[in-house]
Specification:
Blueprint: H1 3-10, H2 19-26, H3 32-37, H4 45-55, H5 59-63, H6 72-86, H7 91-108
Amino acid sequence: MNIMERIKSLLPHGEAKTIAELERDCGISNGTIGKWGVNTYSPTTNNLEKLADYFNVTTDYLLGRTDNPFPPELHNAKLALYDSVFAGLDDADIDALKQMAKHLRDKGNM
């Protein structure tokens, strides 16, 4: 997956946000991100940092150097939350909670 595909995958599916709106939100010059998609231009460090901060992912994820989008500290916090929520539950209860969470997430995307 190239950088343009990763950026598009990170855009909220419930919103019709365009690349131009993303550029405005991040303070990136109009048309800059589109140039990265044709592999003619490479993003600057500054623009990569802006996008990583905007999406709360690592620059390594945007560059395709890792498939884990989350910074290590966020990943560790999610694991701790997961452990505290699911501790002591059996598989059926965990599946029920996952289904409820999926329903809530899907409801928000309608």
